[in-house]
Design brief:
The chain is α+β, with helices and mostly antiparallel strands. The chain has 10 helices and 7 strands. Helix 1 packs antiparallel against helix 2. It is extended, with a radius of gyration of 31 Å.
């Protein structure tokens, strides 16, 4: 399992650059170091993992939060300056209210360590000063960004095995996420109250998820991008069957021909790519419905007129 770093304060962690590079499929991507220490009073194996990809993904969010916090602090300084000049007509800010606003501005993760704030009492308004230590940002990049603590009782496992097991566990979490995605075989919304109906619903959804995963795997095997189930099932859902219908006054031969004939498909490039990967490109029954929806009046007369 993963463990928050503040739950192991006694663990002395090294810089990301000092971790050992893993081999195999993680070569050049993941670095790790293995420890043996007490976790909640039990002797466990702890692996400190650093991922370069995670570091790159977390850095933009950290910089964005830092800019937002700096903007809020500067705005608060401007309000205090207006209060000192007598230009602020509403309720004056006190040291207590300024502290509350500062806490709100620094509520985002890691912001309290990136900014050192000093609030003192002034004559007409409190005085707010803040600085951004350069070593604070460097410390976060060296010890926080891209880092994960993994805890296991597999003391004899190599770090590569432990990291691989955690990656497999994340796949299981993605499966639960797919079960809640309305774009695929989803468990929601649940409109049942009896236990047996819930079990039947869950069985159908799990079987549907297994079939959808088979489709996704075949698409990937064909060399087509399929990062998620939604990217595969979404375009395929829009490929629907369509027939030509004639009224009762049409010749029987024409109506029989319409029953055995499908409307030619007008597919976009993504749908064509997916159908080719699944060997369904030449299936004529995979057509598309009309682009414009029929009005209620025309929908009621659809059986009497040619469509």
């Amino acid at each position: 399992m993963r463990l928050p770093p503040h739950h192991l304060k006694e663990l002395v962690r090294c810089k990301s650059s000092e971790l050992r590079a893993l081999s195999g499929r993680f070569k050049g991507k993941v670095w790790a170091k293995k420890y043996q220490c007490l976790v909640y009073g039990i002797d466990r194996c702890v692996v400190d993992v650093y991922s370069k990809r995670m570091h790159r993904r977390q850095l933009p969010g950290l910089l964005r939060d830092r800019d937002l916090a700096r903007r809020d602090l500067l705005k608060l300084q401007e309000l205090l300056e207006r209060q000192r000049q007598g230009l602020r007509r509403i309720k004056p800010l006190t040291v207590r209210s300024v502290k509350r606003r500062v806490e709100k501005a620094l509520a985002r993760e890691h912001m309290d360590s990136l900014f050192q704030v000093d609030i003192t009492k002034g004559e007409l308004a409190p005085v707010l000063k803040f600085v951004e230590p350069e070593q604070a940002m460097k410390h976060i990049e060296d010890y926080v960004l891209g880092r994960t603590l993994l805890v296991t009782n597999r003391v004899d496992w190599a770090p590569e095995q432990i990291v691989l097991a955690s990656r497999i566990q994340s796949r299981n979490e993605n499966l639960f996420r797919d079960l809640k995605d309305p774009a695929g075989p989803s468990m929601v919304p649940l409109r049942h109250r009896r236990d047996r109906t819930l079990r039947a619903h869950a069985l159908v959804v799990v079987v549907g998820l297994m079939l959808a995963k088979v489709v996704q795997r075949r698409v990937k095997k064909a060399g087509v991008e399929a990062g998620s189930l939604a990217s595969v099932l979404g375009p395929l859902k829009e490929v629907e069957r369509a027939r030509v219908q004639y009224g009762p006054d049409a010749p029987p031969a024409l109506r029989a021909l319409a029953l055995s004939t499908w409307v030619p498909s007008a597919r976009d490039p993504r749908q064509t790519e997916l159908l080719r990967a699944l060997n369904l490109l030449e299936r004529p029954e995979l057509g598309t419905t009309l682009e414009t929806h029929l009005s209620p009046k025309r929908r009621g007369n659809r059986k009497k007129t040619a469509a």
